[in-house]
């Protein structure tokens, strides 16, 4: 048993760290550290920097322009990105659609779309969820009816993250209404400029805009935009859900967030002493750190297994649950640590002119509220428990 | 022993509840709470007209209530409606003016709106660590996150000592803003600002006023959690997933039941604190209430969001605003841990 | 709203307190305080003292020899008994069978059994649970078949508390096997001296004996021992479950146990200081005290409602859950407070000769383990949650 | 990075598991663990013969293992079988003898059974508060709840300083008794008892030995909780209530899943601690393990009882003994809070 990275992995880690130190724009890192929303231009800028280095799509096979990173390299890259406050790579094109196209797409689709993902010409968003069908994908209602060389799409999608920046959307649509609900679903690529599509922002609890509703009214989509076979969408959806789960625990985010809370607790005072010496707060910090260390090891164990070609069964669901609970606990501490200063509604103006919370922490409460989402989306923790319950006695 | 509510108090409750339900529905609340002035001045005046502030003051000083139970029922209703009007400052000003032997009348009519400035960036909730200084009848310092500070007429300021000072809001630099859960607050900058001393040695009066505020916030949280829980049970009964109402899933049922039990605990501890406001047990009971309610309010907020799922994450669905208020109440007047530490200090006394 | 007792209630409280100070034997109180098992002789002695005062059956109507106490007086009496470390009154005859006989029994049954309960000639135990039917009474299997003037009983009961001291048992038995399972149950009184009955002790987790299995083999019970109508036992069982629930929260036990933990925490040291000044332990103590105070008020609110003739709906289940959780949390603190000294298997010998834990605390770990039962018996907390769930949206 | 178990260690694990499963079944364990001498001397000898103690010592000192992982896998198996043999004292004696530069051989063969006497009634787990005094090569004081103290040949005693002393058990008054969760312990009364000093300034050595013991206990708890959890899942699948297996009730399913996740956490933190035993991070990782495992072990014990219902409250059903061990492990070598406080002291260091 050896918990440390191999010399080769350590060398890669050093390379990533050196690259980030040099290439990550400080203005972007500062915004990420303060948990402020990034604009599209900033995200595009960072993607372009990564793409120039060839690391935007590190896990892609070399044949498609990637580096062929395994789970451990991907993990190291993501861990270092978190540590450096690099923006999260927008996953919809790079990590979700791309593997689907590589597995189920035609050579023509691969040749058309993959390069556009890499160079930023296409920003994809996801059209899975519908109102009234949260974690229950089989019940989706958006219809796609064949009409000559086109599908005509009608319906509504929701929770479309960063759709406001996107020019394309991949959707699950219903192409058959008889038979089992799972069997009539197809996977469709849609250009958001097509007439009949309306994207409306959804404002979230803390006041930010990051998700959207998408309305389809008689939207005509060429049948060449179908991925895989008609009515095979359920298979693709399951493939996608099972894919790219090695970072599901969000260990890197949590490690970075915990460091921020520790630094904050050294900075703010309670009863004349640094908060970090307040026994109740210190107890919470030390306890969540132990939990996080345990989960970090669970995550490494899963990576090790995946790297050896082992099949992941219960691990992703366990890590999803524990990972979100721990991250939310750290967000909770970051909010608590501010005491009265957590209360203001954050705004650029307030941060610039009034400086109520210590620098970089004006959005701690907002982040706490926003991150209540992480135990809901991507299959809520309740759904994960249902999945795990099935495996309990096997 | 008698846990029934007196007729007077029930009338007050009913009137207030009906008024807020009709005149201050949650969509109106969401409109006014997040944009300057972060509340509705017309409603402030109307609430004063209903006798709301009179209910917070004792009869022998011109009020019609002023007991712990009066304060609790008023704030429970404000919480149920998620009302962002800055009544908390008014309550504290009434208590401090009572302690100073001053004239309550302008506060009770609502003619004067007061805010109480306790906290400072370095001191947090600690009255012993205040750095705002008084010299020659002038105050210098910065008070942070003063609830209701934006738009107040008078500021009652705690300065090092602690002493209590009265400042005309127009004499200070008041930078107003909204809170993340709605409602007005402000930074108050004092720079040799003229002030009159209300209570030179004000520790006891300030602690008492803060205890009243902590009771009020606990009751407000109680009202808010009952409203949020009612939304949850409605949702569980109507929303379907996998072909059946999600309320039929036993795991959710049991968690909802646990919330109901916790809310019952919150109600009881608020009652106990309300009963103790004029007794030597005040500090202990208030801290028990604020500690316990702080913990429970967070649990209710988090669970109500989680059990709703995505919809509760949206600005449009009212549960999100209730959840924010429930969590952020813990940042006012000492959080759950702060009050627990106060209780720990009382353990050996019995 | 007035949370204090009325002058009349306070006078009663003073009377109870004075009586206990005078009449409760110190040797018995010391054993209760140390949570040592009482023998039958000690329990009989205490019952006799109470009976002489007329308070053994305080809540019974005066017509049957009681005092006609309402819920508040009963609560005061029980609270004071806990505070004084008086033994708990053995409830099976006095609080369970007696109300059944008063409501469903014939005058002859009332005349025969009630006086014998009071004067201690009869010690009743309960035959409800069966192996394989914990909280699910409707599924019970013990058969009673009519044979002339007798029922012939065959089957097995379990969890019969203090059955080793009893001379009689009241049972739920199946008198009909067709129809709904609830409809074929009867309530039967059985003399334990009847041939064919065997009582076997069950040793519990911490090593004590307080429950038993009872085996019935062709046991002939006179039909006059039937209470109520044949096949009406389910109604009686439900009546009993709904009865005497004003003390379900065990507030008195918890208050007394918390005082003991506080005293212990002042006495033992951790890191050279009294444990009560250790912030983590003090935080647990102060937090559970706040919970207990809240529940104490919930309990008083329920009593007030019951005293005014209000119907109790959700309160008993809520109090059962919260009451057991709080009591177990206090037991947990009592165990923790001992540190290393919690470990020995308690025995009279050890307590007398080695004095490892502070006096009166040698059984803290044993009590902690034993009291895991309180969230299981009498309708487990899971069953209580099911009951409450039904009422959620009504 | 490599989380696979080496072949040597897997062989040790397999041998030990099979041996204990066949020779030390739980009914035998229950018979011997609660009656003097509270373990099975024949099995002690047999385990020594299997090389159990050799696995706890490094190769360059006559052992065949001695790393954190060796200790962890051995104690995980002891925990899975709920084995009451006093191996913990032997492990600590091995570590202390290593520190003192003494001869390990009699410990490794099992010819000498040693117990380590740390705790005192007033000092608890605090090495700075010891009152046992040494004068002229003799010790006076009382050591409390010495694990494996009954029947040991040698006692390694921590006296004020702290210093480490070697006492022949026959020279002291050793009052043996069983533990509530089975296994032998003793009070040790020293009254000018002859002793030889092994390490005059023993703080570092004692802390190190206690850290090894804490790792061992954490691993033992891990094995025990896995066994208890397996009994629970079996029970949920077979036991019926209201006409269906209770494992089909979603509320129980979700709670069982939560236990499975916690047990995975326990496994990971034990691995982390085991990997750090010979590094500067030892204290931090061990305290993280003992803290986290202490909390999780109690949760598993309480939930496994609760979800079983009454049957788990009985002496006859093995789960009760597992639950006791899981809870009582927290009373050995510093409890969950004690280790959390140790971690709190390290927070500012990073």
Automatic annotation (TrEMBL), chains A, C:
Keywords annotated in UniProt: FAD, Flavoprotein, Oxidoreductase
Coiled coil feature spans: none
Source superkingdom: Bacteria
Pfam families given in the database record: Acyl-CoA_dh_1, Acyl-CoA_dh_M, Acyl-CoA_dh_N
Domain Acyl-CoA dehydrogenase/oxidase C-terminal: 231-392
Domain (Acyl-CoA oxidase/dehydrogenase middle) ranges: 125-219
Cofactor(s) this protein requires: FAD
Gene3D superfamilies: Acyl-CoA dehydrogenase/oxidase, N-terminal domain, Butyryl-CoA Dehydrogenase, subunit A, domain 2, Butyryl-CoA Dehydrogenase, subunit A, domain 3
A GO MF label: oxidoreductase activity, acting on the CH-CH group of donors
Cellular component aspect of the GO annotation: plasma membrane
Domain Acyl-CoA dehydrogenase/oxidase N-terminal, chain residue ranges per copy: 7-120
Homology family: Belongs to the acyl-CoA dehydrogenase family.
Protein name: Pimeloyl-CoA dehydrogenase large subunit
Organism placement in taxonomy: Bacteria, Pseudomonadati, Pseudomonadota, Alphaproteobacteria, Rhodobacterales
TrEMBL record, chains B, D:
Protein name: Acyl-CoA dehydrogenase
Keyword flag Flavoprotein: yes
PANTHER family: ACYL-COA DEHYDROGENASE (PTHR43884), ACYL-COA DEHYDROGENASE FADE28 (PTHR43884:SF20)
UniProt keyword Hydrolase, yes or no: no
Protein family per UniProt: Belongs to the acyl-CoA dehydrogenase family.
Pfam families: Acyl-CoA_dh_1 (PF00441), Acyl-CoA_dh_N (PF02771)
Segment forming the signal sequence: none
The entry's keywords: FAD, Flavoprotein, Oxidoreductase
Cofactor: FAD
Single Gene Ontology MF annotation: flavin adenine dinucleotide binding
Superkingdom: Bacteria
Domain Acyl-CoA dehydrogenase/oxidase C-terminal stretches: 211-331
Alphabetical list of InterPro entries matching this protein: AcylCo_DH-like_C, AcylCo_DH/oxidase_C, AcylCoA_DH/ox_N, AcylCoA_DH/ox_N_sf, AcylCoA_DH/oxidase_NM_dom_sf
Occurrences of domain Acyl-CoA dehydrogenase/oxidase N-terminal (ranges): 6-84
